[in-house]
Fold this sequence. Notes:
Elements: H1 2-8, E1 12-16, H2 28-32, E2 36-40, H3 52-55, E3 61-64, H4 69-78, E4 85-88, H5 99-103, E5 104-106, H6 109-119, H7 127-138, E6 143-147, H8 164-177, H9 181-184, H10 187-190, E7 195-198, E8 201-204
Parallel strand pairs: 1-2, 1-6, 2-3, 3-4, 4-5
Antiparallel strand pairs: 6-7, 7-8
Amino acid sequence: MNEFIDSINGKSVVLIGNSSSILQEQKGHLIDSYDFVVRFNLAACNFYRYPEKSVGRKFDVWVYAMMSEKRCIKVYNEMKIKPKFFIRNGNTDNFQSGELTEKSICINYDFRRKFKESLMIKEHPSTGIVFLHYLNTCCNPSKISIIGFDSFENKNFYVNKQMKVEKWHNIVLRKARSRLWPQVVPRQLLLGAGYVCRGAGLENGL
Length: 206
């Protein structure tokens, strides 16, 4: 992680969620103004098919958690834009040696386990929240913002129907909000209300 941590030190970072609500706004210019733009999972090979004025075009970090190695490689091969950093929320121990495996930086099991235990929930936190927590506790960016997150109240912008994973995350988020989420990540940030994280604190931003 050292190269990633060093590169992101003192820089502005924006995490782009996959909610279809992002298409209803024109934040593309704002998104592309950040030093580092982070996109998640299948959005990596789909976002550029949508209006630049809504989703932007910059892509610096891919954070992914799909279980299937075949699917991960398929997304990687279909990327029109290859980011500089590939962050795996999980490990690649069972992946065959290849370009994606060699490029990927893994958020280790102990970090994810301790975060989950701190929330006192049985379910796994979503990839977006794990990475947000990682940035806010282990890195030193000048600013972290989130756009396009709405706790899965809307479907992903690149699919025509709600995915099972969204329904699963809904259950997780409902339980998490009533417990320790506000202590780790303030509820306004979790709901994508336009809050900006600076170091360990938060202030209204977007």
